[in-house]
Amino acid sequence: MKKARSVVKIVFTSLGIAIVAFLFFVVATLAVDKFIKKSPVPSFFGYSTLIVTTGSMSGTIEQGDMIVIKKTDEYKIGDVITFIPEGESIPTTHRIIRISGDNYYTKGDANNAEDVRPVTADRIAGKVINTYSHVGLFFTWLKDDFGWVYIVLAVAIVIAGVLLLKYVSISKKSETDSKEKENE
Question: In angstroms, rounded to a whole number, what is the distance separating the alpha carbons of residues 121 and 152?
Answer without folding.
Answer: 41
